[in-house]
Amino acid sequence: MAAENFELLAPATSCAISKVRVVARVRPFLSQEISVKSSRVPVSCISVVDQGRISPEEVTVNLKDPETSRNECYQLDSFFGQEDHTVRQIFDKEVNPLIPGLFQGCNATVFAYGATGSGKSYTMQGTEEEPGLMPLAMSRVLSLCEETGCRAEMSYYEVYLERCHDLLEPKAKEIVIMDDKEGQIHLRGLSKVAVNSMSEFRETLALGVQRRKVADTDLNDVSSRSHGVLVITVSSPVCGDSAASVTGKLNLIDLAGNEDNRRTGNEGIRLQESAKINQSLFALSNVIYALNKNLARVPYRESKLTRILQDSLGGTSRALMIACLNPGAYQESVHTVSLAARSRQISNFVVPIHKQGTPQAKVDMESKLRAWLESKGKTKSAQRIGGIGSPFSSKTPCSTASKVRKPLFNSSAKVKKTANQSDCKREKERTVAVAFGNLVENKDIANSIATKDHVEKVKFNSPRKALSPIHNTNGIQKAVLEISFTDQLPARTPKTPFPANEEFKSFGTPLDKFDAQVSTLKSCVAQEYVDFLNTASREELVELKGIGVKMAEYILDLRETSPLKSLADLKKLGLSSKQIHNLFSKAAMGIFGRIEDLAAVPCPETSLSNQ
Ligand SMILES: Nc1ncnc2c1ncn2[C@@H]1O[C@H](COP(=O)(O)OP(=O)(O)OP(=O)(O)O)[C@@H](O)[C@H]1O
């Protein structure tokens, strides 16, 4: 897709698949790289073949080793050679088209990737004579703010030795990276500064740049020792109660460069920095590899860098990668361009973020996305989009209701009939069924419980409390809040696990009643299980069936940033729905133990004794 064609999203509900766009930028040879004796400019190892002639949508980049005459070609989206391309040209063609989307609530990330000394900081920050993408983007944002009445703010932080530090508020504590249940990345503790003019911006950025860790190495006099991230946030004014506020974020990332320590001459702290930089860039390549291979687990948690980029690689942001290249470094350029070419295959699903999200909008977006993935035969990706870093990690009607699961019991004709009536016209009711049905294997029962007749009974059954604000407290919405597995609830064991017999009279046959009670029991057990995962020690977790040492560690790591709210959150660890189901089943089976033990357990008076 050409940059000009990034479709502008209509406000409110529009969404789009957007591939990570990848462009190459070759810096010129520096004066110290030109031999004084010959005073001839060396030949670049990088060239472009048939720019735009074979296909206007991509370019073929050729890398040629002058020593061995090795030769490799890679396809990228665009190419900016050393001769005639200024940062302004890159901005106009590649970054400018992303900016209007911010004003409609869409996030975007631009990141410069490449070996040390390849020109990443020069491209992103620029110089006084040639402003980089950061000031150019801010200038454009400010002029659009003037037209629209929106506000602009900036944050600037660095990831140094695997820790995030605020560069505008140096006394602040370390920044914590968190993700919410919709897969959005949040940085707890990061300050924001309002920006009203370019002079304010320049002053603030210069302050941050001074604080960023930079050092002289054998390969670059001004080598960045950290990944630097500028965040430009745009917020629309909120008019009255009904209007939803729109916020868009543009991340401009100047990554630290890959370093070959046989050549940098690094020692001591420089070597430590270098090790962390290389580790995080290795983690980035692992994420790109996993996304390309459609692996169920994408290792975003291997480094802070990949956590920050989580939303931009396989997430909900638009993303532009600028592969920066030194024309005299063949091996490094092969490394950079091969990773860049692989990144080009990654799709993001761009969703506008509104402070008051509408569930129906999410439903529409998810069904559009699934249809797209199915048309491409990408079933695994479809699963992933329902999981990691996804706006749909909490199930929505169309995703789960369509899955056919083996019923736990044969339901009665009455239950089936009720379930069949529950079609797409009754989205609200199906929302109940789906939320409830995430862990209820028998969808018929879930659907039947979701019908208006049964909502009130479920409400009495449920041990849950509503935590989210309720705008419309009709029966169905109340029930959604009370039985949804995606709400965060305090751990609680119900005093009366089963409802009094009177409350179940209208359930019809004894089988209906039994099915409903089993479902309620399951929801209680599922909540207890989630509470256990959130509070157990490492040793306790390992004791539980199906959880090994590695999984226990992943869970501890995950809950450190955001406690599990539902079993579906385990998808963030890369587990599939089936794996979560198996894990839970194993734990649940353990409750019942041997059949002889069960025989000794008396029936609760309130449950089956009056039948
Ligand atoms: N397009 C360009 N035109 C002129 N000089 C450039 C250009 N790009 C980079 N340079 C120069 O090349 C040197 C290295 O650039 P820069 O510091 O931006 O590299 P980097 O990729 O950020 O390196 P590191 O990863 O070590 O921080 C600097 O002296 C810079 O001024």
From TrEMBL:
<dbReference type="InterPro" id="IPR010994">
    <property type="entry name" value="RuvA_2-like"/>
</dbReference>
<protein>
    <recommendedName>
        <fullName>Kinesin-like protein</fullName>
    </recommendedName>
</protein>
<dbReference type="GO" id="GO:0005874">
    <property type="term" value="C:microtubule"/>
</dbReference>
<dbReference type="GO" id="GO:0003777">
    <property type="term" value="F:microtubule motor activity"/>
</dbReference>
<dbReference type="InterPro" id="IPR027417">
    <property type="entry name" value="P-loop_NTPase"/>
</dbReference>
<keyword id="KW-0547">Nucleotide-binding</keyword>
<dbReference type="GO" id="GO:0005524">
    <property type="term" value="F:ATP binding"/>
</dbReference>
<feature type="domain" description="Kinesin motor">
    <location>
        <begin position="19"/>
        <end position="346"/>
    </location>
</feature>
<dbReference type="InterPro" id="IPR019821">
    <property type="entry name" value="Kinesin_motor_CS"/>
</dbReference>
<dbReference type="GO" id="GO:0051231">
    <property type="term" value="P:spindle elongation"/>
</dbReference>
<keyword id="KW-0505">Motor protein</keyword>
<dbReference type="InterPro" id="IPR036961">
    <property type="entry name" value="Kinesin_motor_dom_sf"/>
</dbReference>
<dbReference type="Pfam" id="PF12836">
    <property type="entry name" value="HHH_3"/>
</dbReference>
<dbReference type="GO" id="GO:0008017">
    <property type="term" value="F:microtubule binding"/>
</dbReference>
<keyword id="KW-0493">Microtubule</keyword>
<dbReference type="InterPro" id="IPR027640">
    <property type="entry name" value="Kinesin-like_fam"/>
</dbReference>
<feature type="binding site">
    <location>
        <begin position="114"/>
        <end position="121"/>
    </location>
    <ligand>
        <name>ATP</name>
    </ligand>
</feature>
<dbReference type="GO" id="GO:0005875">
    <property type="term" value="C:microtubule associated complex"/>
</dbReference>
<dbReference type="GO" id="GO:0007052">
    <property type="term" value="P:mitotic spindle organization"/>
</dbReference>
<dbReference type="Pfam" id="PF00225">
    <property type="entry name" value="Kinesin"/>
</dbReference>
<dbReference type="GO" id="GO:0007018">
    <property type="term" value="P:microtubule-based movement"/>
</dbReference>
<keyword id="KW-0067">ATP-binding</keyword>
<comment type="similarity">
    <text>Belongs to the TRAFAC class myosin-kinesin ATPase superfamily. Kinesin family. KIN-10 subfamily.</text>
</comment>
<dbReference type="InterPro" id="IPR001752">
    <property type="entry name" value="Kinesin_motor_dom"/>
</dbReference>
